[in-house]
Amino acid sequence: MSTRQEQFSTKQSAELGAAWLDAVEADLDHALDLRRRIHASPDLGGQEQTTAEVIEAELSPYMCLDTIAGTGRIGRIGPTDGPAVGIRAELDALPGKEATGADFASTNGAMHACGHDVHMSALVAVIRAIPQVRERTSSKLPVALSAVFQPREESYPSGALDIVSEKGLEAVSIARMVGVHNHPGVPLGQVAIGEGYINAAADEVHITIHGRGGHGAYPHNASDPVAAVANVALSLPEIVRRTIGPMSAAVVSVGTMSVGDGAANVLPRYGSIRATVRTTSAQERTDIQTAIGTMARRIAQAYGLEADVTIVDGEPVLINDSDLARRFAAQAKGLGTTVASPMRSLGADDFSFFSEAVPSAMSFVGTGQPLASLHNPGYLPSERSVLYVARAMIAGYLAGAESILSSACE
Which terminal residue of the chain, N or C, has fewer Cβ atoms less than 10 Å from its own Cβ? Predict the structure, then answer.
């Protein structure tokens, strides 16, 4: 480890961060124009090629981007060898008719109702500012920054999982990963960063209960699945209380229950249930999945029926690395950001596939829109949010660089 690198965390970090933020703010009009262009022409998950090409054109003078996970892009800037800090921005939008009233609103049946347009424009701004920082100060990036423009965050198959499976992190030597997401539940401009569990594992349960159909007037001649399906649906949420401790967060929610074809006097041959399972530790995830299978089969058996249970694994638990999260919060404060209380939920984000692969930290930047939730047709983060998200990305990079250099010294 060189003396220059050893000194970075204590002597150069503040200078680099302040100069970087100043350069982003000086170029903010360009970032806002990019945000409006991306927002006006959103692409759905799996169809992000146009958006990816816009990003590629914006960054071509600064870094090379390789295609990953179909429509994604990945690259690095800074030192050409050694580990890098990855920063994720999502490419995809959601289906839906926008109702923001903005003069740059989408009209193509999709919209950036989760603020991914803000993330992309902020990351582009952060990268565009790097040459300006070099010119204004003696500060250089102590480790590389890897940009990960991820497809399919909102849809399956997961873009993050594909990037990990395709060895994308290894290709650009990502050793720490940073996520920054806008959020209306955080005060405007503040950033929420926490250690440990942030988002839940999200799995689906598909249950089919098989019986024997018949006439409603002669139920004794049939094996009616209706009551069994109803009992399974009522029992699924109870599994949480009977499986894990009351201080843990988990939920099982039935989203769909289907029995019969609409006739009042026909007993159906089978019924089905679809439910979502949210858990916050790997062991509890396994325990609840096992309990669901046992419960469904035994209830079906009590009615003289059979149950098929399929668990469809989704995103794993999103765990923030404690060391990286603490450094992230300290760097954010150093850049003048108020650090809000950690934001944890039973929602899911496929950033968790990155957090399984390398030490990672997800954060949330406030948009100050408490009445407009994410995925709402009226959701429109303020233009200032681009700067706030960029500021958090810079803080996350600095934290990641510190963490990498610190671990190298041990």
Answer: C
